[in-house]
Queue: 3 jobs
Job 1
Amino acid sequence: MRILYTLTSYPPAIGGAQLHTHRLACELRARHSIQVVTQWQTQRSDWLLGTTLRAPPSACSYEVDGVAVRAITLTPQARRRLAPWVVCYYALQGPALARIADALAAELAPWGAQADVIHNCRIGREGLSYASLKLARQRRIPFVLTPVHHRRWAGWLHRYYHRLYRMADAVIALTEAERRTLVALGVAEDRVAVTGVGPILADSSDPARFRARHGLSDDPVVLFLGQKYAYKGVGALLTAAPKVWRRAPETRFVFVGPRTPYSRRLFAGVADHRILELDAVSLEEKTDAIAACDI
């Protein structure tokens, strides 16, 4: 089978959805033909502008662990045509999204010309996801969606994603709770499959190595691991630290994962030695951190 994966961001960019999709591509390439199309190779969070008017300046092809990847972008002419629609995106989301999806579908089309199925993993705003659906419908092939849905993506602002959920030929949920949410949003039950998701870890771990490297001694460690967006609860955990210290003052709080503008502001004034904040780390160090933590 010829599978086209599409997602806004892909390794070497780091993120849960990115790494999950990459592992699927790596495993399936032994039996199927795999092509990935993305827009970003680096850490970004300008979800609308960064995929349209401020998209990377040029397209390129590369490989990650043997997986073929094409990073697409928009031409200067397409950006000029889209500029007024990007500016009024949230006020006129329907027609604006249609035009953005059309422009991205034109760039996506050569890479999906031979695909038997298009599988989109939702990251950021809706443009590439709708472009993927458009191409699948044109080619009359199945469109599969992994929405990695979060409960905060509710209401008016995310209504077009909810419509996309309902239009997909198959929807992949990672947990039973996500499946229930998707069904509540109108996705037909027989179109949702729960696959589960596991951690991506190194073959071995050394908790003592992580503790020694960061001077944690034998103190209890509470670990946050992930991209440091507000909705992931990093601020809530940091706020909870003083409450924990009242009963267990030796507890260390370790925050590991790619920094964001939000997290840089959040940690800017933190000076307590019991707080350790690290940017993205290697797979080996991530695995050591998990092995070293108590919670």
Job 2
Amino acid sequence: MSFFEGTGQSAGIGNAISLIDAVYRWCECVKGQQVVDRALKAIGDSLGSEALAISRVRIGAGATTRILAYDAMPANAPMPRLQRSFAVSILSDFLASARPGTVWLRSAVEVEADPALDLFHSRRNMRELAIVPLATEQSHSDFLEIHFANPLTPGQHAVLNSLAMTLSEAWRKRSEGIFVSSVLSKEDKDDKPIYGTDLLGHRNPARLSRAEFRICLLLTRGVTLSSICDELSIARSTLRTHLRNIYAKTATENLPDLLYLLLRKPAESLVAPKRKIA
């Protein structure tokens, strides 16, 4: 039962419990103690939504989007399941400036029509999309996207506004690397890992340059950034440039995310063929 269904005292208590459970599961999720799917399902159940997603949109040229989606629609159903983000379509020029914890409704903003969103909502008989900015950092912004079958009532909007602030604040305090680790875990379950071989394997799936490869190899050995500069005789600014290139090639956003990707498999499988680190 969603928070907005039912009448009477017993229904009100049940609705409140559903909402509390959603907040609890979200807080456990951002601490890495519960899988994202369960948290999104709990939020969806409490709000009356069957399709939700956490999306990460890289800001600037060559913007990319990664998504963690929950969709109650069975995988073998003839209707489309939620597989992409629509945050860019709704927020447009406000993508990087939207205040975390606010609620942006598709019906309340003036944006150009997105054919993909129109088709998805049409096929699924949905009529509203709410975007909640969770956090904005230098390189990317994170969003919670919630699709609804019907327009929100004033009461629904008020509850969603209050919930959005709580979810955003919890997300701001999330464990480092939680988003990327969840993406990788989901891709592994779907048998669609980002790379078919180790990132530092001999096939070099991310197409790292020689310098980038050496930096990643040193990171897996626990070498600090300052020591990497000394080891490779490069300036700190040069190292920052290499790291930006590595983030782009590996679809990571920062050093904790990169380290998780490098170390997510047993150490012995990450060791590259012995070579001199020059």
Job 3
Amino acid sequence: MKVEDLISEQLQYITSGKSVQYAARLMDELGVNSLVVNDQGQITGILTSKDIRSVHPNRIVADAMTGNPICIPKSTFIGDAISIMEQHQVKRLIVKDGNHAEGIVTREVLKTTLGKYEDLLTGLYRSAYMEYVFNHFVALNRMFHILFIDLNDFGLINKKHGHPVGDDVLIHFSTLLKNITNEQDYICRYGGDEFVIISTRKLQEVEKLIQQLTEPMHVMNITLSAAVGYINGFDHNYASSSFREMISKASMISTSLKPAYDEHLLHGKH
């Protein structure tokens, strides 16, 4: 998923010396919510309908526009575009193909698109989005790590406290994941009580993250722990592996790390 597929507005230009009143009329005529400010062939700002409402109509565009707009390549991954918007606190980015500006992508469109890949219960991404992340990093030849997180004895929680409480535990655990991760981490609920993190952090930081995840924690007065299967996504042994194959291997590693009593219960032993 790249921003070139999500361009929501074609570029419409105005110069910085025009009046805000003229800009407002031009937006109405063109049916757009923003104009790109172009002076002598250089993009110098973006003017939005919100900018127009914040100043007197007799002022000029230069007084109302947001200067030095952020431009991104059309090949930018959608998740990275969202991060750029959040970092710079902007709602629009200019999309370029080389030196040529092609259009504008908005935060609203990006968020709506990503919303289709969100898990309804936890608000985390679903596995389909993580596969996009995986393929994107592989295409860039970029270093990344895969963590497969499997909650221990979650079935017992459902049996003892009921499925609604189990759902609440999953929601609280998802919030914990959000709190201990950062912009270098992509998180998803893979299914049931299983979660996946794809991270571009340094190995030492990932090791600390794994340690945090494997330590017993208290969620809603319930002691919770997890087994974490780790794979270096850049390991040449996995160079030709698909997302599904990598997740399967990480899953098997997490299973091998589960406490012995968990395995006994699994096989009906006492």
